[in-house]
Amino acid sequence: MEPSLISALRSNFSASETDREHFYRCWSRTSCPNCLDAEGCSWCPYSWSCVPNSYKIPFLAPAYDKQICPARQEQWEIRTRPLGCNVSSVTTLTATVSIVGTFVVLLLAFLTILAALRIRVYARKKAWRVPWRARPAQNHDREQEPLLRSQAAGQGAE
Question: How far is 100 from 104, CA to CA, in rounded Å?
Fold first, then answer.
């Protein structure tokens, strides 16, 4: 057999990369683009270090591991794939929350307007169904009487 074929077979059956090997593979990278080119690595910008990050959603790694970066104050500034070197986790979360919040507010406004229109239509339909009641005769006669009886009596005397 050919040596390249043997090495390919060995790589297929060899044990997967250990945590220590993953750490050294990432830690040896010295720039953000070079770090993000490696699978499972993320960049910590303040300490200029490439750290292992094998979480399913890499930009949320600080939520799972508070010591993902060497400096604690940079944990939410971590740079990950596919976002790139110019986008941190906090920027991604801020944009996501802003967009989702805007959609929620717009949905609530739409539902409020829709509810108001339905209430208005329901009120109009209900108003046509209510039969008008005739007022009692005594209330009708009293409406036409003057408010000030003494002036009305005085005007008639003149």
Answer: 6
In angstroms, the CA 150 to CA 146 distance is: 9
Taking the mean position of all CA atoms in its chain, how far away is CA 6? Answer: 51
CA–CA dist 16, 132 (Å, integer): 85
For 59, the token pair is 């930009």
Is residue 42 within 8 A of residue 18, CB to CB? The reply is no
Would you call 114 exposed, middle or buried from its count of C-beta atoms within 10 A (0-12, 13-18, 19+)?
exposed
Tokens standing for residue 120: 């208005």
pLDDT above 80 for 100: yes
Phi, psi of 50 (to 5 degrees): -100, 125
- Beta-ladder partners of 44: 49
What is the reported pTM? 0.55
Nearest alpha-carbon partner for 77 in 92, 57, 98, 65: 92
15-32 per-position pLDDT tens digit: 566 878 888 888 888 888
Q: Does 128 score more than 60 pLDDT?
A: no
Question: Residues 88, 76: contact at Cβ < 8 Å?
Answer: yes
Residue with tokens 């720039």: 31
